[in-house]
Specification:
Elements lengths: L2 H22 L9 H20 L4 H13 L12 E4 L11 E7 L2 E6 L2 E4 L10 E5 L3 E7 L6 E7 L17
Parallel strand pairs: 1-7
Antiparallel strand pairs: 2-3, 3-4, 5-6, 6-7
Length: 173
């Protein structure tokens, strides 16, 4: 062993001995006296005062309630400053079925609940307006009467296998 290694081992041994002495011969914790008990009461009073100050006002509770009512599960709720709700999360209880679209000239129509609508048309008995038509989904929009916010809803295309045309080719022999 080199001299440097012997010095490091000696230093480590001294450190272990001092650590063992401090660990095993350390005096016990002193019992808290009356001054320490009084100090904890002061701290508890301060904490209680801070908690009372942090309580929400009725106006703040109302605002949080509105936010919770209009919240969606999707953190990317559609952008453009509007709230959106996907199918099944609308909360308004209205069921929409987008079953297809058709193009007549330059005009595009979507079939929602069995009725054809063009972009910008009002849907029957729902308060929604057809905002956009895509082959895979339609985007509906309505204005909430109480808050004035624009609520959008994206309804996906629902295809029914029974409506598909089946063509069979039969070879003659």
């Amino acid at each position: 062993m080199q001299k440097r290694e012997k010095q490091l081992l000696g230093l480590m041994a001294v450190t272990l001995v001092v650590g063992a002495y401090m660990f095993f011969s350390a005096p016990g914790k002193p019992e808290p006296g009356p001054a320490a008990k009084g100090a904890s009461k002061v701290v508890m009073d301060e904490v209680s005062k801070i908690i009372d100050q942090a309580r929400l006002t009725p106006e703040q509770m109302y605002r949080l309630g509105l936010l919770a009512d209009n919240a969606t599960g999707d953190p990317f709720y559609g952008g453009r400053g509007t709230f959106s709700a996907e199918e099944g999360q609308g909360g308004d209880g209205q069921e929409f079925v987008y079953s297809g679209y058709m193009k007549i000239g330059n005009k595009l129509f979507a079939v929602v609940n069995g009725i054809e609508y063009a972009s910008g048309d009002e849907l029957a008995e729902s308060g929604y307006r057809m905002l956009g038509i895509d082959k895979n989904f339609v985007t509906l929009e309505r204005t909430d009467g109480s808050t004035g916010r624009k609520l959008t809803r994206r309804v996906p295309l629902v295809e029914d296998d029974t409506d598909k045309i089946r063509i069979r080719v039969v070879k003659k022999r």
